[in-house]
Design goal:
alpha/beta, eight-stranded parallel barrel, 12 helices, binds glyceraldehyde-3-phosphate, binds 1,3-dihydroxyacetonephosphate, binds zinc ion
Amino acid sequence: MALVTTTEMFKKAYNGGYAVGAFNVNNMEIVQGITEAAGELKSPVILQVSKGARAYANHTYLVKLVEAAIAENPEIPIALHLDHGDSFELCKSCIDGGFTSVMIDASSKSFEDNIALTKQVVEYAHDKGVVVEAELGTLAGVEDEVVVEAGNEMFTRPEEVEEFVDKTGCDSLAIAIGTSHGAYKFKPGTDPKLRFDVLEECTKRLPGFPIVLHGSSSVPQEFVKMINDNGGNMPGAIGIPEDQLRHAAELSVCKINIDSDIRLAMTGVIRKYFMEHPDHFDPRQYLKPARQAVKDMVSHKIKNVLGSDGKA
Ligand code: G3H
Ligand code: 13P
Ligand code: ZN
């Protein structure tokens, strides 16, 4: 199967009560780990590239790695998506450069400016057969260079979603219901709870329309411990409980973004490897278990959180 847009994936996910995982890619091992898991489990998958990933690895390298993954996994649909595009120019560059989906994140702008910029991207993208994710409401945490303090996040206002989707023509909408980016999502001792009332209200107003959740890592304590036991220092790292994400996937959420969990798994495994093998210096030796950790993490998410196994 060639590179696809998310249109068909989301239609099936919405009707089937599951979500498609969107995983950030920055290098070969991450692309391989994610797509090997999705390929074996016959799951659709979205590979997403941030502005930072493009700056780190280079647009062409990332596109070619994804092309290689498609050739190696011909039985599953794969979409290539720009994560948190912050300008028309960045979105245009990815649309012209082979991506099948882009996000324009103008959520920090006013409602009117968000509509205007999103509409501009949608018009350009649709003309080229590319789909567009937009965002309403802001998440706490770090979105590329924008840092939003916990407590200053703004939940999506359901009364705005219909007008926003009507006026922009976007294909999916990321909403803020209490998820946030990074490894420190909740204060230790608090009870992490997503705002399902906001999600349900948005769904009522946009029946059949795919909703996206960013900041959906669960920060598995097994990997936080592995990092801390092997020279790291990440006290109080806490994520979104997986059962709440599974519930969201059964509702209108069709795309769930997961990046930090992959970073934690790779870092934990590499730290442990070096502690156990202080004399090793061949990158293949420590990147091999790191790649396996990515694959195991993505397999776990597909089976236990997304429910997308067997849906390719
Ligand atoms: O939400 C952002 C993703 O985790 C990508 O992060 O900007 O560090 O590549 P990045
Ligand atoms: P996490 O930091 O929770 O993995 O979120 C990733 C994300 O939303 C990418 O856009
Ligand atoms: Zn995000």
